[in-house]
Design goal:
This protein is α/β, with parallel strands linked by helices. It is built from 15 helices and six strands. About 35% of the residues are buried.
Amino acid sequence: MDKIAAAVFMAKAVSIYKKVLQSPVARPLMELLECRWENPQDAAACYACFYEELAGCSYSCNLSDYLFDKVLYDDNLFTRNCAAGEYIAIPIQLKNAVERELNAISVLAALTDREIKEHLKEHYPDYCQLIELLPGFKSKNSRFSASESWGEDLVKFAEFCKSNGFGQFARNTSFYLEGDRLVPMEEATVEPMEDREIIDWRIGVVDTMQSWMNGEEPGPVKMSICEQEPVRFLRAAVYRYKNRGLRLVVVPSQQQRVFNRVLKELSACPMRFVALALDADGKTRGELDQYREQKENVMAICVIGAEMIPE
């Protein structure tokens, strides 16, 4: 069995990290490797799609860096368990499966543009000269330090998730809800304010957050009718505990009807969250009072009268 056929077979068996192979670069790459088209123009169009996505990413046409990044920040059963500090408790069968899948993806990542072009030539021998004109790409890690077979770094992947979290929560600290997806926000700094009422509220939030992160019971849900920049303030406050797994999710007032659902979804994640509701009319208060006794990893905060979209 040649290298391409083996790579396809191994990749087809990937299940835990399957979202990596469904990414905009990996999907057309797999189609190129399977090469089921009778018409060579279809193969050329697929290569163009693959290259457009790879060239448009932040990894300078580097296939290996692109796929490694997708693996590092994937959200799956393994990364969630590692983020919860449960690597030791993961069954050996699951660890072995993850190791095999990481090795399979690393084989794909190591494929060179030369190997893919030669593969296309075997299927379309009349187009060899034109296939040579297809643009090239890199296939050796330049931004990440990784073993040749990524499965050898299984423990390092686990340690990364434990220290940084999983999926998008490992990549960013603050988010706001837009439709059904979480949109990352840049980190923020907060300018000093002189309003005594706001200062007292902020001190109370920080004290509660500190006690909560130290394992003590959090205080009552924080409400406010005076805070003018709750998003900016909480982004900065949460960032202090970034390395201890704390993240911020902001729900704008336009979506307060789904706030309770967001709280339940966050409570199922093996990390800690501050969930901020920007409540224009105070209707969220009842939901928070009912929710607070149910979960321990989400600190819910509601700012009454706030309806701005996070900047």
